[in-house]
Amino acid sequence: MFCQECHERPATLHFTKIVNGQKTEFHICEHCAKEKGEFLPGSNTFSIHQLLSGLLYGDPAISGTASPGLSQQSVLACPKCGMTYQQFAKIGRFGCRHCYEVFDSRLDPILKRVHGGNTKHEGKIPKRIGSGLQEKRELENLKKSMQQYILNEEFEKAAETRDKIRLLEKQKHQEKGE
Amino acid sequence: MSLEHFISEAISPWMKEEGPDSDIVLSSRIRLARNLENYNFPDFASKEESETVIRKVHEANGDQEYGNCGKFEILSLDQLKPLAKRVLVEKHLISPHLAEQSKYGAVMLNEDESVSIMINEEDHLRIQCLFAGFQLKEALKLAGELDDWLEEKVDYAFDEERGYLTSCPTNVGTGLRASVMMHLPALVITKQMSRIIPAINQLGLVVRGIYGEGTEAQGNVFQISNQITLGKSEEDIVEDLRGVVLQLIQQERAARNNLQQGLKIQLEDRIFRSYGVLANSRIIQSKEAAQCLSDVRLGIDLGVIQGISRSILNELMILTQPGFLQQYANEMLGPDERDILRATLIRERVELEEA
Ligand SMILES: [Zn+2]
Ligand SMILES: [Zn+2]
């Protein structure tokens, strides 16, 4: 296939741009890609998604093309935005927050590769909508450290921590009771 | 338009400050990606949804003051001319994606342009804080506060397991991209960058030239940023990046020392030749201009050239890009005309210093 811009060199870059569900396919050579990218500095819209969709496609367990047992995935689609798993695998982008739940069972391997083996968020929790989560995390951390104190036979500290846990749990129940 | 006036329009006020370690770190940037709970991500949203997102953010926080940031102004991208958009991109206030691809994009900017909040970019919100010099922690703190301020009024798409949900899986979790722009001429001259870049990549960080294509960094300016956004806290991500930047600062300083000791006259020759080119040329391409600017800036940092402000590199790297040149000329220019205008503008800017 020849480059659709210069019609001279072979097209080496293939990508799909989706804006508001409208698909446009591009097949261009490296030279023309650079020229197109040159209009705006630092334009990296090709590279990262191309890289990522290559990543998703390259994995037979994810793209499914190699294993007929996974043919079910052709109907795996997000009820909110309509994104199918195949579309997601092709463009490497979620359509809405619900896509994360719908494709959840397939996400871990992808996230692991992109994020150095990680799959679970360890960072900030939004103040307002996440206030319950913050308490939950605090409780989990306290319980962990209590276990550690017990293991180390530091019973005084373990007892202190236990009291903190009880207090937090009591507060939680009272809030619920209101 | 006079050159002084043009520069004061073109250079964001925050850039005129000198931050810590600004002989090597030109600027620090924090970007947080956030989405609203009930709407499709921007590239998959309907016109109504996109307009609702802008309206919600505008109603909640647009045209308001926040702390030391001052008042925010909201700009709708469809009301800007292509050249004006390009100028915003060259100032790093909006992304190429927002300028070129988003149909219903908008941006909230504060007075000194140190904060830009892009709306309907790849994600509903991209909060960006820019600081002069090496101030990653300060930038993270401010971005976090702005994030809380926005979250008071709008519901974010957040998941306990996956964190802040983003359109691209590469941003999920913290949605945090921390980056610094570094001027590393001595490491380039001593040919150490080709060894350093793979080592940094192995630590999960990305190095790229901001100006120029591919691995080649015009003006010896490199951007270093985190790649991993999931499974680490914001503080840890910034700390890991800071550690690498500190090492790079040390190595660059050591390389500058070695050059000054071993190749003093050769180095001075190179610096003054570049100064001569900038002060005298009538036609100059962006690549040559960038290289000469880098040499002159190194000369200023080493005290070889005196009486010229350090900001000349940052300023002229931005001013001599095509969008700004055309805005200065007030017309569209072909590449040859741009090279002539670039030379003129640089000469005038250097004369301004000498006056
Ligand atoms: Zn071509
Ligand atoms: Zn969806």
UniProtKB/TrEMBL annotation, chain A:
InterPro entries listed in its UniProt record: UVR_dom, UVR_dom_sf, YacH
Any GO molecular function: cobalt ion binding
Keyword annotations from UniProtKB, A to Z: Coiled coil, Kinase, Transferase
Residues in UVR domain copies: 136-171
Pfam families linked to this entry: UVR
Coiled coil location: 151-178
GO biological process terms, semicolon-separated: stress response to cadmium ion; stress response to copper ion
Signal peptide start-end: none
Top-level taxon of origin: Bacteria
Name of this protein: Protein-arginine kinase activator protein McsA
Automatic annotation (TrEMBL), chain B:
Free-text activity regulation comment from the record: Appears to be allosterically activated by the binding of pArg-containing polypeptides to the pArg-binding pocket localized in the C-terminal domain of McsB.
Gene3D superfamilies with a match to the protein in the record: Glutamine synthetase/guanido kinase, catalytic domain (3.30.590.10)
Entry binding sites for ATP: 27-31, 92, 126, 177-181, 208-213
Enzymatic class: transferase
GO cellular component: extracellular space
Function: Catalyzes the specific phosphorylation of arginine residues in proteins.
Family classification: Belongs to the ATP:guanido phosphotransferase family.
PANTHER family named in the record: ARGININE KINASE 1-RELATED, ARGININE OR CREATINE KINASE
Annotated protein name in UniProt: Protein-arginine kinase
Source species of the chain: Fictibacillus solisalsi
